[in-house]
Amino acid sequence: MPITNFNIECETKSPEREFYKESYVLLEGAIIEVLSRLDIIRKFRGTQNRKDPIEHCKARIKSSDSMQEKLQRHSLPINRENALSEIYDAAGIRVVCTFLDDVYWVVDMVRNQQDIIIIEETDYIRHPKGNGYRSYHMILQVPIHLETEIHKVYCELQIRTIAMDCWASLEHQLKYKKNIPNQEMIVAELKRCADEIASTDLNFQAIWDMIEETERMTL
Fold this sequence. Notes:
This protein is an alpha/beta fold.
């Protein structure tokens, strides 16, 4: 399972390790735990000659700068405790799928993990944001087993199609550009593209369903 943008062997003296201290390992653990469970289920599907629903995964631990800015934005004292208990995306995973049905397959697989608590779910696919953003968001509480205790660590999971991920990547880059001329036109064009992508995702799913139905009929 390709996993990018997540380096477990981070520098010992990195700003993130300095900010999160020993809790950095817990955040790593939450990411590894979720990805490992998905990986096992995917491999088991492979033994049954079933399609892999996941194209790739990306994971990251929120940078200390981004976390401190978010704490400040929420009028919270800037410290590790608030970062781990009041902000839910210090550990983040993005799962990119090929088809729409695959997104909801991942959602169901996470729901089936009985010891992972789902704190919050938001379906931005069926109910997109005003700018056209689409993705399925889950806030999880993941159990990390240590020698004598169990820590429950928050982890944000974003699940989307390849097309949605391309759109979100472009929108994210533009968000941080300064003094862009014709910004209103660009925002409107992005919204139009988002709607076209949503339509294309539906068409891709319909085509794949027809292919699968044809294969079942020939068996």
